[in-house]
Each structure stands twice: as structure tokens, then as C-alpha cells.
Amino acid sequence: MEENKIVPTLYEWAGGMPMFLELFDKFYDKVLADDILEALFKHMSKEHRLHVAHFVAEVLGGPKIYSESEGSHFVIIRHHLAKHLTQQQRLGWMQLLLQTADELELPDDPEFRSAFLAYLEWGTRIAVINSKLDKLEEPPDMPMPIWGWGVPGGPYQS
Ligand code: HEM
To answer: Where is heme annotated to bind (predicted)?
Structure first.
């Protein structure tokens, strides 16, 4: 990355809130049509897809809609407790999300995709770990995660 360039957040580079809303809307449509994932999600609330879109957008540098009016990192972890998620389910979740990202033509530059994938790997593995627990020992005011560009430092801007 060149010097003196303003580095956008991952949220901005992805396309902002309209992109996150569409991404998770289409993604959960696919989840409900998926043999492996349907049973897990068939009772999810109407707001589920909106909350996940707001959460991921915030982690990637977007507005604090999730943490200020919908939940917290503690709350999101609590949603996964005792769900006993499997690696097969996690991989199915990842695969459908990445497929949706391609279909919606999220930026596919190596810098963005490697950072986005790193966050998804981290977040889904945390979800699986927490799903094996029955209760949370963490403090309720634990901070929201914040994800950045990692080693590339930003998108390639010529
Ligand atoms: C980055 C990764 C993930 C994020 C950010 C995330 C986010 C969330 C959020 C915000 C909720 C609560 C939604 C609400 O307010 O109604 C939730 C619930 C849930 N998540 Fe995740 N999640 C992730 C990964 C996963 C994975 C990998 C699975 C399983 C394959 C999973 C399964 C579930 C289930 C079963 C629920 C409860 C659904 C219900 O209410 O019936 N999550 N997740």
C-alpha cells in the first residue's frame, strides 16, 4: 500500500451497510434451503439476519448499530451457547457466505478477501467453541471485536 493514501475501513471497502444487509439477507435464504444448516436456523427470529449484518458491519469498522441498540459481544456469544455446532456446520456456513459474497460481487481483491476470510474463520471458530459451553464466564461488558486489514495494511490503491 502506498503512503499518503486514506485507508478505508473493511466496511467501507466492502460497500457499506447496503452491501452487508443484502449479503446476510441472501445468505440466510441459502441457509434455509441447505440440508445441513436448515434445521439449526429454522426457528431464527425475523431480525436474525439484520442483527448479524449489523454485527459484522460493526466489527469491520461500520457504525455501532449492533452494540448501541441491539446487543453486545456478550449477547452474541450467549446466542451460541449449548448449540453444539459441528465443524461440518461451520464449514457449510462459511461456504455459503463466501458463495453469496461472490454472487453479490463483494470486492475480490486479495487484500480485502484475506482480511474478510480471516475474520470469518475467527468468528465461526469462536462460535463453535462457545457452542460447547452451557454458560459464559466472561464479563458482560467484554468489548466488541474490531477487525482490520492485517499485514497488507489496506487495499492496493494505484
Ligand atoms: C462470524 C460468525 C458468526 C456471527 C457474527 C454470528 C452471529 C450471530 C448473531 C448476531 C446471532 C443472534 C441473532 C439474533 O439476534 O437473533 C446468532 C445466533 C445463532 N447463530 Fe451465529 N454467528 C456466527 C457464526 C455461526 C455459525 C458458524 C453457526 C453455525 C453453523 C451459527 C449458528 C447460530 C445459531 C443456531 C443461532 C441461533 C438461531 C436462533 O435464534 O434460532 N452462528 N449468530
So the answer is: 51
Which atom, in ligand 1's list, is nearest to the CA of 86? 30
- ipTM field: 0.97
For 6, which DSSP code?
A: P
Q: Which residue is listed with cell 441498540?
A: 69
Residue type (1 letter), 8: P
- CATH class entry, domain 10-131: mainly alpha
Q: Which atom of ligand 1 is nearest to the CA of 40?
A: 35
> Residue 47, exposed/middle/buried by CB under 10 A (0-12, 13-18, 19+)?
exposed
Burial class (CB in 10 A: 0-12, 13-18, 19+), 48: middle
Q: Domain residues of the chain, as ranges? A: 10-131
CB of 44 within 6 A of ligand 1: the answer is yes
Q: What is the pLDDT of residue 5?
A: 81
- Alpha-carbon span 36 to 115, nearest angstrom: 27
